[in-house]
Write a structure and sequence with these properties.
Low-confidence stretches: none
Protein name: Lysophosphatidic acid phosphatase type 6
Keywords: Hydrolase
Structural class: alpha/beta
GO molecular function, one term: phosphatase activity
Organism: Perkinsus olseni (Perkinsus atlanticus)
Number of helices: 10
Radius of gyration: 21 Å
Pfam families: His_Phos_2
Length: 336
């Protein structure tokens, strides 16, 4: 099996990805710019619903979420501060926030940043501190995502670790309701109607019916059988992402949870089937028609083309989620 054909591939237990392959075309072309599309690092569960009967999952997080602000009206920059969850945290354990970036997640992105600098730093003549317009970082407005962008930057730009506190990096973070980095019906209102058309299509109904037996097993294993006794295409997204996230939280060594045990029903083969269906209902549904691709991915592609027209840019980093922005480029170009 290729690594990506294994259920645990998403754990990234090696804490790094393979180095980018060397050029082999012999053209002698000079590298002018690089665009990086990334996903946030390993995280905790974003919900506290029991995954299955008998689950006693508990977390211990070394890395704390951090915040601060710059360029305030007072003309000063605030101190950074740790986000402490307090006594009403929803996850079992002492210190973890729901959905937060883990220590392993930080290390993943730092390692990736170091790999990217080793591969492209000299060719792009990257500075030691990222500055616009030569370097642009963009993130969705989610703490684990912009913290992942910062971790990638720490790996790529060693000067950030000992720079003057006033010499901070910039990360473009767009308001969620107008952010094109993931398919959004608030960015492109026609998307909602197009998705409704897809859910009524023969393709969607056939796919949902095909997975009925798999969902029956998921329902019995998780203890949520009544919810899984449906073939409604609109429900498939949640029905498949729930067990996928639960399995990652319990099984991946990159998530600081214990005990590391999953029901025998969720073995390697079945989890790959569940992950495959989750990928379809999360991302692949948008490639079911050119209309859906245009409405889901068009706004981000427009932003990307505008970025590519900035001739002073050498590096662009887009940090997001499983559902964007990488898919906005890979799906239309059939790179998946």
């Amino acid at each position: 099996l290729f690594p990506e054909d294994k259920a645990a591939y998403t754990c990234n237990t090696a804490m790094k990805w393979d180095d980018p392959p060397p050029r082999q075309d012999g053209s002698g072309a000079q590298l002018a710019r690089v665009a990086v599309f990334g996903r946030h690092g390993a995280r905790t569960l974003a919900f506290n619903i029991p995954c299955w009967p008998g689950s006693e999952l508990s977390y211990t997080c070394e890395t704390e979420s951090f915040f601060g602000f710059a360029n305030s009206r007072s003309g000063r920059r605030s101190p950074s501060f740790n986000r402490v969850r307090g006594k009403r945290g929803v996850l079992a354990g002492d210190s973890c926030l729901a959905g937060q970036l883990t220590d392993s997640g930080v290390k993943m992105l730092v390692n990736t940043g170091m790999q990217l600098r080793a591969t492209y730093g000299t060719a792009l003549d990257l500075p030691y501190i990222p500055k616009e317009p030569e370097v642009m970082f963009r993130s969705t407005d989610v703490p684990r995502v912009y913290e992942s962008a910062a971790a990638l930057a720490w790996g790529m730009f060693p000067g950030l670790t000992d720079a003057d506190p006033a010499d901070v990096m910039d990360i473009t973070v767009v308001d969620e309701r107008s952010d094109s980095m993931k398919p959004s019906d608030t960015v492109c209102p026609g998307l909602e109607e197009a998705l409704d058309e897809f859910y009524e299509s023969a393709e969607a109904k056939k796919r949902a019916e095909w997975g009925a037996r798999l969902r029956e097993i998921i329902g019995k294993t998780t203890g949520y059988s009544p919810l899984y006794l449906t073939n409604d295409p609109k429900q498939m997204y949640n029905l498949y992402t729930f067990p996928t996230e639960c399995w990652v939280a319990h099984a991946c060594p990159t998530v600081p949870s214990s005990p590391k045990a999953v029901p025998p029903e969720f073995d390697e083969g079945r989890m790959k089937s569940i992950q495959r269906e989750a990928a379809y209902w999360v991302n692949d549904r948008y490639s079911s028609s050119r209309k859906l691709q245009r409405l889901a991915y068009g706004p981000f592609i427009e932003d990307l083309l505008e970025d590519l027209r900035e001739d002073r840019r050498r590096l662009s980093v887009y940090m997001g989620h499983d559902f964007g922005p990488a898919n906005s480029v890979m799906d239309p170009l059939q790179l998946t």
